[in-house]
């Protein structure tokens, strides 16, 4: 089943990583942990972290410039801008509006969406549907996160997992049928708000000196619950999406999963019977970058020449909310 409306392709990819590297050994000087424990339980060896004055919009800007260069487009060619993030520079204005000004885009709709680690897959669906509506020709979509700004550096169960990054894609309309964004399934379940959340800093619990002392502004997580749900939900959504399009996992040339934990990815791809050589991994060097994980992994796979014309790609995401999503792409 193909989408009969205007096909939308990923015209280019781009990414930006902060220069500073934080290794597991560095972390073992901050909390009681070890390179061995972190690598064995998560697959992570190091992650990038922003400089103190480096922001989510700075990284998003870097990724946007990279994607525009790779698309051979100028900022004025872009007519829609969407950013997925849960770590915006400000509550308002949005990261997208900051970028609109920095990139010099004229009169384009620019907005952020919040779907945590599933943010980029949500962006693909939202942007694809807006473009199919007819008005927009070239769109810039970005996943960007400064997760270290919401990381509790005294909590060893979370601080070893996260890093900062941004990834971007230019989406364009094309006349070639049957390529690009083939289909998506998105989902959510708000009945587990406490297993992965940031309790403070919103309208429910505005920050006060007292609750800052209680560290409510940082990510809290029940890792074991998240682990189990992530594997089950991503397997389910992958199967549903492939079935909808008359494909099996044998047809998929590369799976680009959210990079939360190597063991989650291994359990998932084992259930789906997808061999390791058809799975994109960058978690060892980058950790979990939430909404930036998938677009950075996609851009790196592209840079490494792993995406061939006609290949089927399957993006699989799971995150806080809970939210999840799968995207099927035929590379062009
Ligand atoms: C967080 C995670 C790595 C923990 O791994 P785990 O195998 O489930 O480990 P547990 O939570 O059972 O903890 C086992 C032990 O290691 C300890 N531990 C936890 N973090 C540690 C660390 N960084 N270093 C050393 N020991 C650690 C625990 O305190 C516990 O000790 P105890 O047995 O004495 O109580 C794992 O659950 C996970 O990755 N979950 C998914 C998280 C995720 O992906 N979140 C984002 C989703 S988008």
Please tell me about this protein's structure.
- The protein is an alpha/beta fold and 332 residues long.
- It folds into 2 domains: 8-177, Peroxisomal Thiolase, Chain A, domain 1 (3-Layer(aba) Sandwich), CATH 3.40.47; 181-330, Peroxisomal Thiolase, Chain A, domain 1 (3-Layer(aba) Sandwich), CATH 3.40.47.
- The chain has 11 helices and 13 strands.
- It has helices at 24-27, 35-42, 56-71, 95-103, 119-132, 156-159, 209-213, 223-244, 262-271, 283-286, 293-303, and strands at residues 8-16, 20-23, 46-49, 80-84, 110-113, 138-146, 164-173, 180-188, 196-197, 220-221, 254-257, 312-319, 323-330.
- The strands form 4 sheets. Strands 1-7-6-4-5 form a 5-stranded mixed sheet, sandwiched between helices. A 4-stranded mixed sheet has the order 8-13-12-11, with helices on both faces.
- The protein is globular.
- The mean pLDDT is 96.
- The structure holds coenzyme A.
- Coenzyme A (COA) binds next to helix 2, helix 6, helix 8 and strand 12.
Bound molecules: coenzyme A
Number of separate structural domains: 2
Q: Count the DSSP helices.
A: 11
**Total DSSP E strands:** 13
Helix content: 25-40%
Class of the largest domain in CATH?
Answer: Alpha Beta
């Amino acid at each position: 089943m193909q989408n009969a409306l205007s096909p939308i392709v990923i015209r280019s990819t781009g990414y930006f990583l902060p220069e500073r590297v934080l290794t597991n050994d560095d972390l073992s000087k901050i909390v009681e942990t070890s390179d061995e424990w972190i690598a064995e339980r998560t697959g992570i060896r190091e992650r990038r972290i922003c400089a103190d004055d480096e922001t989510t919009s700075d990284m998003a800007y870097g990724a946007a410039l990279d994607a525009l260069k790779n698309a051979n487009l100028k900022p004025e060619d872009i007519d829609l801008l969407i950013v997925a993030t849960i770590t915006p520079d400000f509550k308002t204005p949005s990261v997208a509006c900051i970028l609109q000004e920095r990139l010099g885009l004229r009169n384009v709709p620019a907005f952020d969406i919040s779907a945590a680690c599933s943010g980029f897959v949500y962006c693909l669906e939202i942007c694809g549907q807006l473009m199919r509506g007819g008005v927009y020709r070239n769109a810039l979509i970005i996943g960007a996160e400064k997760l270290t700004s919401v990381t509790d550096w005294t909590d060893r169960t979370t601080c070893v997992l996260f890093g900062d990054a941004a990834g971007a894609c230019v989406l364009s309309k094309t006349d070639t049928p049957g390529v690009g964004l083939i289909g998506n399934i998105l989902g959510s379940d708000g009945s587990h708000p406490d297993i992965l959340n940031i309790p403070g800093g919103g309208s429910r619990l505005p920050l006060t000196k007292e609750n800052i002392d209680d560290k409510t502004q940082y990510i809290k997580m029940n890792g074991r619950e998240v682990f189990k749900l992530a594997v089950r939900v991503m397997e389910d959504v992958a199967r549903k999406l492939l079935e909808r399009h008359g494909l099996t996992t044998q047809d998929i040339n590369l799976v680009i999963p959210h990079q939360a934990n190597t063991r989650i990815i291994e359990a998932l791809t084992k259930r789906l019977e997808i061999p390791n050589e058809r799975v994109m991994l960058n978690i060892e060097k980058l950790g979990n970058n939430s909404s930036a994980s998938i677009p950075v992994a996609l851009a790196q796979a592209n840079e490494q020449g792993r995406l061939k014309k006609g290949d089927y790609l399957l993006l699989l995401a799971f995150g806080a909310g809970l939210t999840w999503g799968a995207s099927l792409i035929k590379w062009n």
